[in-house]
Amino acid sequence: MTSTLEQQQTEDCNNNNNNNQTMMSPTMTTTMVTVEFHDDTDGSVTTVQVPEGTKIIQAARQANVYIPTLCHHPRLTPVGKCGLCVVSVEGGPTPTQLACTTTVCRRDGGSAPNNNDDEDDDHHHSMRVHVHGPVLNGLADAALRRNLDRSSWTNPTPQRFAAHNNDLAPCGTLELEDLAAWVRHEMVDVSSNAISYDPSLCIGCSRCVRACDQLQGMKVLEAPLPLSSGSTATVGIATAPPCMTTRAGRVLKETDCISCGQCTVFCPTGAIKEVDHTPQVMRALSDPDRVVVLQTAPSVRVTISEMFGEDPGAWSEQKLVGAAKACGFHFVFDTNMTADLTIMEEANELLHRIDIAQNGTEHERKKSPLPMFTSCCPGWINLVEQSYPELIPHLSTCRSPMGMLSSVIRHHWWPKQLRMNEETHEAHDSFVSWPRTKKGHSFRKRSSRKLVLQQENEELKSRVANLEAKLAMANDTETSLDEIDQSKLYVVAVMPCTAKKDEMARDQLRMLDGKPETDAVLTVREFGRLMELRGVAKREDPYSSKNIPELMYDNPFGDSTGAAIIFGVTGGVMEAALRTAADVLSGKDIQRVKYEGVRGMAGIKEATVQLGRKNEIDLSVAVCHQMRNVREFLAQIEAGEKTYHFVEVMTCPGGCIGGGGLPQSRDPNILVKRVSKIYSLDERNVIRKSHQNKAVSSLYFDLLGKPLSHLSHQLLHTSYYPRPRKPPIALKAPTQAVATVMDSDSSNSVCIVFGTQSGTAAQAAKEIKVELLHFIGRSKAQPEPEVRIVAGNAMSPERLLSMLNGALATIFVTSTFGEGEFPETMLKLYEYLESCGDQDFSGRFAVFGLGSSMYAAGDQFNQAARMLDKRLGEIGGSRIIEVGLGDDQAAELYRGELDKFMEKLEPKLFGQSAGASFIDPPEPLYRISLAAGSHGRHFRPVPPNYHFVTLQLAKSMVSEGYHRPASMFSFSLANTGLKYDVGDHLAVLPRNPEIAVNKILALYAPAIEKTQLLSVEAVDHFSTSPFPSTLTAGEMLEQYLDLCARPSRGFFKQLYLFATTAESRAKLRVLFDRENPNVSQDAFELYTGTHTYVDVLCDFAKDSLPPFEYLLSMIPTICPRLYSIASSPLGAAEDQLDLLVVSNKWKDAAKQERVGLATQYLFGAEVGERVAVQIKTGILQPPANPETPVLMFGLGTGVAPFRGFLQHRQALKRNGAKLGPATLYVGFRHEMNDYYLQHNYQTWIEEGVLTAVRPVFSHDSLKEWGGKLYFISDLIAEHPEDMFNALIHHDEAEGKHKSDVHVYYCGPAMGIPETIQTAMEGALASTGMVSVCGSCSCSCLPRIGRDLSSSPPSYSVFRHKNRPTCSWNVWSMSKIASTPSAFRHRLPRFCDARSMCFYIQEALAQFHQYLFKRSLLFRAWFRHKQYRKKSQLVYREETQQCRITFLFYSSSPFVESLGVSVGSIWRLFVADLFGGGRDFEGCFRIIINIASLVVVNLWH
């Protein structure tokens, strides 16, 4: 056996070698191909020419380009087994390839080269291969770990293999060790100037993620998901990484990271830390030809002691200087000196801006606007340049104190030292040697040196004065200070901030030779490590620091003030500036130096300070620290809520004393202790005002002249520019660059603004964009318009309207929610439009609405869209076409009307297209790129705006074997932060069945794998992506794309663009073409009646399969399903929520059983599974007063909200509350099969929670009723006295009958509520207490008492629907309440003229009161009808009578009985009132006039 294997291996090897020799044989005609290896890590390009057919990995070795591999060997046949040699070939069939199995080939498909055209020859004979980079290295790392995990060792690491080196590789060293070391090195993220990340050290504790999110609000980092029980923490293709990642898998440099370093403060392992400058500083200290200068920030003197286990401030600043000198620094300067200098420059800049604001030109005010923001915090500067470039003009141009001191050292102090060295005869060696002179080693005898220095003292002073004079001449000349030789000077800064490493690398702070003015920045942590390396102190030895000498800062930069010290705390810069400003503006030395208004740890502090000789100047200032607070603060300024003159911003909590480069501490009060120490140092300082610093005065006298002088601007000021972050690295570059939000121009753009409640309108907006892009391509419009999607609440209404005014056109897409209301994402915009004037909107617009024709009778069908369309026209908009009204009751849902809407709209926008020809598909709406690593099945990011809850229990509510399953699902809300109120809804986001997902993956295998990690980014920066930034391919298909929905015509139209055969195109055209008379319009209905998106893709996969990233544009996303919550937070178990759900099943046209997507998901879920949900505010709210009578109607699972009602009442009862009567009518099919909650009703009745339950079983009485179903309306007609008792009761206390019952309905919306209302009226009439008047055909209540006769019953009916739509997998629910028309046949009508007159008089008096006292509330009620708003629930009782009055007036029989003329006038008034009239006083006068006509007509 062994010999056979050896023989076979030898033959394979020989065959392989023969093949290579044949390929390389000079006798054969070979085509040489140029291969370009692009290293995505450093951007380098390496070129090599190899024969066509060479493996990529062989070409890489010839080019000395390293590609990792385990399974490949040059003497063996490649098998592509390990997966490490992953590369990306531009134009390749898949995003990635294996280098060992992919051959080098020409990119022209094999055609002969054109030797006559050099350019064409180069083009056709080159091949671009991308290697390394974060994406490819991540895939290689995952493959390596997967290979190691296959081993049987318990610790499958490279070190484990190295430990068994003698056993495993006796013939040589292990390749695995070198490979693992390379992969680890490549995986360390060193892209940032300030922060590095080594994932091999990460333990997944998520501290850094929480610091980035909770403290700073930046959300740059993402945490690993917790492992499920029983899982092991491994890394590879089939499991989740145990380490932190950035969003979208980007390197830190390409994220929104501002280098604040808060993540490094909390990391326990050092996985994420500052970029270490200690080695280069050590090299500089060891260089005998360099002078190394150190500067220290204010907070360093307080925090350096923490590095050695001591309390904050335990070291004096003299001890800090002594430690620096002991480390080898030649000079140690105090950054506090330039902090005082910063105040001088910044204060004068502020006064200059205030003067410009009062007296300057428009151009000057635009260039130097107010408020002015401080600029000494580099993290804040990073944020502005990356995310808020519009604030750049507001930034102070002053450099930070570190930048100022480095500049002054290099361009003022260092030239003086060089001149002194040149003029001193004793320094015959190099100048840099004398600072190193030790005791007993002088240039000459000490006595001789002393004598020489005394003799030349006067001459030296003269020469130095001449040098200073020459430097001062730079104020009037263009002589560059950077011409001085800086090569022997090395400037180091010790700072509390990691972002200072970013600052030192800024182009604006570099010298002419490109080198930075600050050579290195050490954090306090690095400085502590440097002291250990230099043997100055040891952290493990607390006594080692006792021997450090105490020395003074070196002159001339050693003097400072208390004002400079407080730069280290939030509010310190502001307070220092106010101290100086107060003295300057008053002309005297003010003793007050404390400004309590800007002190403290509050995130945002505001103050108005009175300055001047007579306090005539009111200076409005603000102080903000910690990035989360900063973003909130900037939003307030953008909204115009705040105005200031001067604003201080610090990135870190507490300012510099909470910086990212400070020692880690587990003391929760560490910031307070540091702040206290800073202020104590300030109080002990003799000089506490910056302008009193003599060193600063001397610098102005000797060099700068005055603040804001020309030389000051050259040395002490800087500039800023926008630096938007780059998009994530994609394997295939997009065909068109996307402009950033700030740089984009809306003048040639079509904006689609959508308002959605459940996601359907967002999907419609996406379909409109795709259709517009198709049409634009056909019309060949030049310049090509841009199409943007933006949510109605994506930005402030003012900013959105401003953008829309400049757009080519705007398409508004809105659903109608509830009882004719606007959805949440459109409501704020509409309310703003209500407040706009007649000419505030000048753009062209079109409106498309989504609604249900079931509500046409109540005038609620697409009411939001119609109101929006009307209002846009009223405020000056130009309507392009009439409003489109989509109907979810139609066979194609809203899409049929949308197609007609687009057919009218597109020619008016872009002119006639070039016909029905189709072109290449437009750019997809989302970009997909491979992210580093891969995840297993348990990796499941939370969908945006959702929360995960855990399924605790699923209990069947029907008899065993019943064909309509129904269950009570209980979910745990523990640790989710979710809260709900009784009557609210739960929006459940279902998941596709796994079989459908696997079908799609099989179509795209092997390019797309289920566990492959993808990054998703919206192409349109204005739109909001419904996908997480990073997720697996399997999760995308299972949780987000609605694979099992009924396909739309638009989907077939897009699929047509990818068809490669005439046969497929013909089949697809039949399914979407409406205009072709030869095409049967029934084909679409028949096909889509039995096919889902999955089925269609499988049918056309052979020649019409679109690229994977296009699926996100072509297939709609899954919409959440709304369910009434069947529990109360008061009555249910703690943190528990219940749903009552019935399975939605039906048979399609092919007699195949279909199941709704949501119910299939819920009924198939296992206990313990996480479900993505949202809490939605409901309409069915119980009365605020528990004594109010309640009448409820629940059909089937419509009893769910009333279970919550009764649990709520039960809890109130047990707490001693008095309850009013409550009657429940329920309707089911069979008493023995689906009588939900049967055993609960009796318990509630016994406890006094429920007065009576009236069940109806529609299918159990077929024989009794002759085959007719028995409904609730039949029960009411059979027992009218029960209904009368539920509606009207006798109040013993007041001795009269009352009817203040609240009526609720939950069930199917069409037809049934109307039959119940009719049955209720009939029940009241049949009791004998009501007479019927033939003259007006209306039932009337008798005048039992004056109160009852003068005020009709005020019961409210809230209706609610819960039904399946025509789409198989959609179980939708919406909420409505009764409209005015719903009340019309429910209220009493009086035929007695005397009673009518009295009633009108009473009603008008009541309306007069509400008109003038609650006009705003009245407007909100009739204009917006926000019934579901909890904030207005308290007003329902107060406005009840007012509503009844006007609903009575609008009663059709009553108005018609007055005659045509009066009725017409009345209808106009009612239409104006309900349709948007705003003149309430005029309306009231109309009411008086009409009321007079009413009384006259009735009298006669």
Outline the structure in words:
The chain is α/β, with parallel strands linked by helices and 1500 residues long. Helix content is 38%, strand content 15%. The protein contains 53 helices and 45 strands. The strands form 13 sheets. Strands 18, 19, 20, 21, 22 and 23 form a 6-stranded parallel sheet that branches.
Element layout with pairings:
Elements: H1 2-24, E1 32-39, E2 45-51, H2 56-62, E3 86-89, E4 97-98, H3 118-124, E5 126-131, H4 133-149, H5 158-163, H6 165-168, H7 175-187, E6 195-197, H8 207-215, E7 221-222, E8 245-246, H9 262-266, E9 272-274, H10 278-285, E10 291-296, H11 300-303, H12 317-327, E11 331-334, H13 336-359, H14 362-367, E12 372-373, H15 378-387, H16 401-423, H17 446-455, H18 457-472, E13 489-495, H19 500-504, E14 520-523, H20 524-533, H21 562-565, H22 572-586, E15 604-611, E16 617-625, H23 627-638, E17 646-650, H24 670-684, H25 694-704, H26 710-716, E18 749-755, H27 760-779, E19 786-791, H28 797-805, E20 809-815, H29 824-835, E21 844-851, H30 863-874, E22 878-879, E23 884-887, H31 895-910, E24 926-934, E25 947-956, E26 966-972, E27 985-989, H32 994-1004, E28 1012-1018, E29 1030-1032, H33 1033-1040, H34 1049-1056, H35 1062-1072, H36 1082-1088, H37 1093-1099, H38 1101-1104, H39 1111-1114, E30 1121-1124, E31 1136-1142, E32 1145-1147, E33 1153-1155, H40 1157-1164, E34 1170-1176, E35 1190-1195, H41 1200-1214, E36 1222-1228, H42 1238-1246, E37 1252-1257, H43 1272-1278, ...
Parallel strand pairs: 1-5, 10-11, 10-13, 12-17, 13-14, 16-17, 18-19, 18-20, 20-21, 21-22, 21-23, 35-36, 35-40, 36-37, 40-43
Antiparallel strand pairs: 1-2, 3-4, 3-5, 6-9, 7-8, 15-16, 24-28, 25-26, 25-34, 26-31, 27-30, 27-34, 28-29, 32-33, 38-39, 41-42, 44-45
Helix pairs in contact: 4-7, 13-16, 13-22, 16-18, 27-31, 32-33, 34-35, 43-44, 43-45, 44-45, 48-50, 48-53, 52-53
